[in-house]
């Protein structure tokens, strides 16, 4: 039986190798197609990058896995191809990264914080990136030095220029999939760390409440922004059970 194509869309500033902890198991059920954000210097480039992989591989029915920034692009893709995207698997997801200042329970970051991050990135990219990487992990995960392990691995595989990273932050500021969510017909699985400081769990709750089709939200205790790295086996178990793999 042929495997279903699965597009993998990483987060901001992340290489495709970030998915490595889950790849051996995913390959049993899916034909993996990796998308990265290299070469993108404008807002339209993110969706253009995804569409180029879809068209290049002549995809008819396929599934999409997105993390963080990649979840935004994944939601937009699933809304664009409602009858073609079978499963939508999202980690640390958001339909709008910038928070609504009037919201009682913030689901994102204030715009001024991301603008400041852009300025810091231009001055000292290494320090800015490392600070962001550390913030992806919960206190429990830091006690296990999982943040240090991740950063050491990432330093060996950081493919993005400062210009590309700034374009990614601009995308996070401007992009919104809030109006796309109710167009999605896919089976949606959201996996979110309860201690996620990058995209609060409320962001996934908003997505889950707006999806008209089948949706499951799995919250992981004491877990930060990158559960598929810190708890790959638990994430894989959730995926297998939810998607009946």
Automatic annotation (TrEMBL):
Entries under SUPFAM superfamilies matching the protein: alpha/beta-Hydrolases
Domain AB hydrolase-1 stretches: 5-231
Keyword Hydrolase appears in the UniProt entry: yes
Keyword line: Hydrolase
Gene Ontology MF terms: hydrolase activity
Top-rank taxon: Bacteria
Any one annotated GO CC term: membrane
Pfam families: Abhydrolase_1
Gene3D superfamilies per record: alpha/beta hydrolase (3.40.50.1820)
Signal peptide per UniProt: none
Protein name: Biotin biosynthesis protein BioH
Source species: Effusibacillus lacus
């Amino acid at each position: 039986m042929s495997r279903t194509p699965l597009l993998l869309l990483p987060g901001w500033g992340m290489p495709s190798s970030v998915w490595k902890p889950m790849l051996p198991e995913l390959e049993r059920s899916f034909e993996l197609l990796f998308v990265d954000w290299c070469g993108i210097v404008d807002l339209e480039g993110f969706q253009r990058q995804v569409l180029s992989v879809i068209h290049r591989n002549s995809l008819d029915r396929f599934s999409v896995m997105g993390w963080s920034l990649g979840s935004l692009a994944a939601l937009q893709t699933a809304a664009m191809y409602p009858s073609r995207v079978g499963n939508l698997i999202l980690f640390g997801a958001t339909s709008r990264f910038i928070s609504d200042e009037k919201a009682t329970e913030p689901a994102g970051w204030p715009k001024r914080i991301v603008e400041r991050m852009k300025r810091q990135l231009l001055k000292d990219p290494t320090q800015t990136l490392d600070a962001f990487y550390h913030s992806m992990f919960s206190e429990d995960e830091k006690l296990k030095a999982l943040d240090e392990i991740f950063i050491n691995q990432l330093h060996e595989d950081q493919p993005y220029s400062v210009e590309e990273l700034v374009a990614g932050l601009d995308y996070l500021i401007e992009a919104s999939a809030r109006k796309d969510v109710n167009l999605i017909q896919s089976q949606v699985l959201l996996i979110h760390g309860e201690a996620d400081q990058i995209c609060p769990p409320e962001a996934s709750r908003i997505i889950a409440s707006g999806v008209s089709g089948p949706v499951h939200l799995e919250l992981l205790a004491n877990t930060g922004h990158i559960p598929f790295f810190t708890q790959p086996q638990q994430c894989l178990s959730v995926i297998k059970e939810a998607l009946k793999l």
